[in-house]
Every structure is written in structure tokens, then in C-alpha cells.
Design goal:
Elements lengths: L1 E5 L3 H13 L3 E5 L2 H10 L4 E5 L7 H10 L6 E6 L3 H10 L3 E5 L3 H15 L6 E4 L2 E4 L4 E4 L2 E2 L4 H12 L7 H8 L8 H15 L4 E4 L3 E4 L10
Parallel strand pairs: 1-2, 1-3, 3-4, 4-5
Antiparallel strand pairs: 6-7, 7-8, 8-9, 10-11
Protein name: Response regulator transcription factor
Keywords: DNA-binding, Phosphoprotein
Pfam family, one: Response_reg
Length: 226
């Protein structure tokens, strides 16, 4: 899952990014509104953390422009504790949730997890697909109750498929949500990670939908595997 952090305070930006990366997310970052707006307008994100008080272009304007252009990714805004009007303006502009400064990073992580779950139709912190279970809070996966030993890329792949289980996900979509903007993207790497993941969870759970991509199912579909 890929997240954009837009915060002009360098220390806070770094703390948020490091905490999110430890949770298995792929992170892009921006330090002003113009750069943040551009990234959110041109790259696909599973969620955005957006500070209201940004240089160049304020967070409310960034959000309003995204929504006017049809960008629907969930957005968590960061507001000052004594500015209740910012919270109202942010929600009215299209924000999905907010956190007031100063805050505990754990609260931001919890709210981001919840936003992503709700956006993909999951109510619980544990996502289940047949014998597979994904603990989004602990960033761990298991099959039939046994913990899976996954590399960071394998976890990202499985996490995205679990959040979008039953849907056909293209290789391009996987690449866009597994790697940051600076990564040298190659669709062949997705096939490699899918192959490795299949060896750990079984071949029948990740279906290959020829010409379209992959689908995670409970293993009872007749779609062709490859």
C-alpha cells in the first residue's frame, strides 16, 4: 500500500515516514503544497496525510483541487489543536479524517489503517481470505494459523491483494502501489514476487487472469492459473 505524506516540518515528516515504512507501507513525501498537489494529481495513492498549514499552497486548497478533479483517495488532514475552523474546512473540502497536533504517531497509523480498510470494504483490522489472514495492525500474515515469513516486497504484494481480494489487479496497478515514485519499475519483478508468494501460500490462492493480471480468491475458482 502506498501513502503520500505532505508535511513541511522536516522532523515530523521524517517521523511519520519512518513509522509508516516500519508498518510495511511505501512512502512518497512532499514538503510544500505545490509538490504535494502534483504528486497526488499524478500518482495513485492508497491514502494521503496532508498538513493544513503548508507553504506555496495551503492544504485546504490542495484538497479542494484534488476533489474537483475527481481524486478520491482517502485523506487524513493534520490540524493545529486550537484551530477548530481548520477541521471544519478540511472536512468540508473532502477530508476523510483528521488528527490534531501535537499527536502520537500511533494514532496516525491507526487512522490510516482504518481509512484504507474502509476504502477497500473491510471493517476489521484482521483481513481474511480463505486460509489466509492479514493482521494490518501488526503487519503480519498467516496461513491456517501459521505465521508466514515474508520479505518486505512479498508482504506489500500480499497486503494489496488481500485488501482487494476478489478483484482482478493488473501488474501496472501492483507496481504503482508497491513502489515509490523513484523506484525503477519493471513488470517482470511482479511475476517474480507472485511466484515466490505462491510457493509460501499455495498456487491456488493467487489466480492469473490471462491478459489482465492477478486475483486473490479463496481457492475455489475455476480461473486459469499460471
Amino acid at each position: 500500500m502506498r501513502i503520500l505524506v505532505i508535511e513541511d516540518d522536516e522532523n515530523l515528516n521524517r517521523q511519520l515516514c519512518e513509522a509508516l515504512e516500519e508498518q510495511g507501507y511505501v512512502i512518497d513525501r512532499a514538503f510544500d503544497g505545490e509538490e504535494g498537489h502534483f504528486l497526488g494529481d499524478t500518482e495513485p495513492y492508497d491514502a494521503v496525510i496532508l498538513d493544513i498549514g503548508l507553504p506555496e499552497l495551503d492544504g485546504i486548497t490542495v484538497l479542494e483541487r484534488w476533489r474537483a478533479d475527481g481524486r478520491v483517495m482517502p485523506v487524513l488532514i493534520l490540524t493545529a489543536r486550537d484551530r477548530w475552523s481548520d477541521k471544519v474546512a478540511g472536512i468540508d473540502a473532502g477530508a476523510d479524517d483528521y488528527v490534531t497536533k501535537p499527536f502520537h504517531v500511533e494514532e496516525v497509523l491507526a487512522r490510516i489503517r482504518a481509512l484504507i480498510r474502509r476504502t477497500t470494504g473491510h471493517a476489521s483490522a484482521e483481513i481474511v481470505c480463505g486460509p489466509l489472514s492479514l493482521d494490518t495492525k501488526a503487519s503480519k500474515a498467516s496461513i491456517n494459523g501459521t505465521a508466514l515469513k515474508l520479505t518486505s516486497h512479498e508482504y506489500r504484494l500480499l497486503s494489496y491483494l488481500m485488501h482487494h481480494q476478489g478483484e482482478v489487479v493488473s501488474r501496472t496497478e501492483l507496481i504503482e502501489h508497491m513502489y515509490d515514485q523513484d523506484f525503477d519499475r519493471d513488470s517482470n519483478t511482479i511475476e517474480v514476487f507472485v511466484g515466490r508468494l505462491r510457493k509460501k501460500i499455495g498456487n491456488d490462492l493467487i489466480e492469473t487472469v490471462r491478459g489482465l493480471g492477478y486475483r486473490l480468491a479463496a481457492g475455489d475458482s475455476s480461473a486459469a492459473n499460471g
